[in-house]
Structure formats: C-alpha cells, structure tokens
Amino acid sequence: MAKLNSESKNELKTRRATAALRKPSVFSIIFLGDAHVGMDQRLNPTCKYRIKNYKAILKSINSNDNTLISVFHGGDEGDKGVYVQNFVSITKKLMNRKHYRIPYFAGVGNHEYQGDPSLSEYKKYISSSDNDVIRLYGSNYGPKVAVIMLNTGGPSDSGCKNGSGTIIASSISEIKNSAAYKAVIKDKTVKIIIDMHIPPRMPVFRGNPPTHHRLCSNAETHFKNFVNGIGTNRILFIVTHHKHGYIQPKINSRYLYLDKIPVFLTAQGGNCDKVLSSDKRSKYSYYKIEMSTNTASSRDNYKLKNAYRLDVDVNTSKVVKAITIY
Ligand SMILES: [Zn+2]
Q1: Where are the beta strands (DSSP E) in the chain?
Q2: Nearest to residue 293, comparing CAs of 15, 22, 19, 17?
Q3: I want to staple 83 with a disulfide (CB 3.0 to 4.6 A). Which of 78, 90, 125, 312 is the partner?
Q4: In whole angstroms, what is the distance from residue 23 CA to residue 27 CA?
C-alpha cells in the first residue's frame, strides 16, 4: 500500500492544476485531528472513540467544494501505535471523488509513539519522514502557501520525556535542513502555516491547566525560537490538536502566539465522549480555513480570511452547524 502522505503529494499536483486552484483569489484547507481509530478497543477506554464518527466526518468533508485544496490531520491517527493501517485505508476510501482523490496529509501525535517508540507503523503506512514541508504550489500553479508539519513528540502528554524537549528540537533541525524548507524561506512571497499536535503556550493555556496537553517549557523555547527565526509576519496561523475535551471559542487576543499569530485548536476528529461543551454537536467537528489574496492574477501574498468550525451529525454525516471562529 502506497504511503498516505507520498500519495497525497502526487494528488496535490493534480489538485492545484484544476482551474479553480491555479491562481485562486480564495482557497481553503481543512484541518482536524485525533481520530484515535481503534481506541474503543481498549479494555477500559477513558474516551469512547468510534470509527463511525471518523467516517461520518470524512463523508461530510468529501462534498463538492471547489475551494478545497487539501486536508491535514494533525496526529493521533490510531491508538498506541497500532490501527494506523486501518486509519489509512478508511481515509483513502472516503477521500475518493469521481476523478481524483482529495490530498490528505497526516502528522505525528503522542499516540503514534505509545507502544511504538520508533514510529514504525506511522513510517510504514503514512510517511517515511515524521516531519514535512508541504508546498501547495508548484512552478506553474497553486497558491504560494506552505504547510510545515512539525512533530512535537511523545509519548507523554507534553511530548517531552522528562521535560527535555529533544524530539521537537530534532524535528526543527530536520525541517530546517530540508530542501523544501530552504526553498520556502528563500521566496519571501510564500506564506507559512504550521500544523503541530501539541499546542504551544498561548496565553489562554498559561496555567490553565498548568502542566498537561501543551508543550513543556524546554519544547516551548525551541518552538519560539523556530517561529521567531521564520518571522511572525510570514506565518499565517498555527493549527494544533491534542486537547480533546476542549472546544475553542472565537479567536481573540488570548489565542495569539507571540501576540501576533492566530492559533487554532481542533481535536474532535474521533471523538471523545467527554467533551467539555454544552453543545453536544461540537463533539464531532473540524475546521475549514479560508485564505485570500488581493491580487487575483497573482499566486502570492495570501491572508487569513475566515475560519469555521463545522459540527457534524455522525448519524447523517452532514454538517449541522458552522461557527465562524475567525
Ligand atoms: Zn494527543
């Protein structure tokens, strides 16, 4: 079976050459995370994730949308390192359209490390590299936007074994040494998105909760240096996952990283039945983020336009609510 991310890189070439996405004045990406396929097979699961929920979400994504260029799933595809193959076969099947398959990339979460410290399942079925830089453009077509897929580490909740932050540090140096990253940085018209499993310390999570489900302080230092090195003006936004019980409200100053960069948090791709929200439909949701450019004839200088949280009814696979969060 071809690896999901390598196959998606080829599909992306076809996708960006379609008329609507060659030089789009508006285009969109869908982000989700934490499908946790197979987690309900545990003896005493803390959360009842069900494959049915993930399938319903994929069916709702696979609707007619000319602006959609790609989908990113930001980690925790399976559970304890296994079920990754299952995740991939479900995803490939449900991303099929009549004439193409929607490009779909999956990153590394802490659950990929649990019971599989060398990420053998992830590397076998998803990608041989646990970090990547996905360029949505080629030499002729596609918006000049790149998505950095950053592995924040595992297997613990903070991604930092004993608080060392070594995994994110080696992720960052691997990315910086890649030809794709160097090409992106060199061309200043290219805007950057970072997708990462564990959230950084944006103001809303300072001390709330104090110690878990966000980067440990060493990891945070590495990440902050990385972002400052790229330049906050070049980063359109950051997308994170991992905090399953948390539903993010409208983006305000408490969700800006380094006072400038919007941070989105979507972790309801499975999902956990213990979500802390009075609106039960938000339990099964994903984000659709739209970007636009002022110059319709150009492929560069894109801006963040809108972000929506789309809530899915898992019985009908339909979006039942669209919340504008940015
Ligand atoms: Zn996680």
Answers
A1: 26-32, 68-73, 104-106, 132-135, 145-150, 191-196, 235-240, 256-257, 261-265, 285-292, 303-313, 318-324
A2: 22
A3: 78
A4: 9
**Between 83 and 273, the higher pLDDT residue:** 83
Q: Are 255 and 239 in contact (CB under 8 A)?
A: no
Please give the distance, rounded to the nearest whole angstrom, from the Cα atom of residue 249 to the centre of ligand 1: 20
Beta-strand runs (E) in 130-246? 132-135, 145-150, 191-196, 235-240
Instruction: Compute the distance from residue 49 Cα to the ligand 1 centre, in Å.
Output: 13
Task: Give the type of residue at 276.
Answer: L
Portion of the chain with pLDDT greater than 70, in percent? 91
The Å distance, Cα 60 to ligand 1 centre, comes to 23
In the reported structure, the alpha carbon of residue 197 is separated from the centroid of ligand 1 by a whole-number distance in angstroms of: 7
Spatial CA neighbour of 132 closest among 90, 89, 204, 194: 194
DSSP label at residue 96: B
CA of 198 to the centre of ligand 1 (A): 7
pLDDT digits (tens, 9 = 90+) for 180-231: 999 999 999 999 999 999 999 888 877 555 456 788 888 999 999 999 999 9
| Ligand 1 centroid, distance to 157 Cα (angstroms) | 7
Å from CA of 240 to ligand 1 middle: 10
Number of helical H runs and strand E runs in the chain: 9, 12
List b or e across 168-201, with b for residues whose CB sees 16 or more CB atoms inside 10 angstroms. Answer: bbebbebbeebeebeebbeeeebbbbbbbbbbbb
Burial profile 229-266: b = 16 or more Cβ within 10 angstroms, e = fewer? ebeeebbbbbbbbbbbbbbbeebeeebbbeeebbbbbb
Ligand 1: distance of its center to the CA of 99 in Å?
Answer: 34
Q: Indicate the length of the chain as a whole number.
A: 326
CA of 75 to the centre of ligand 1 (A): 7
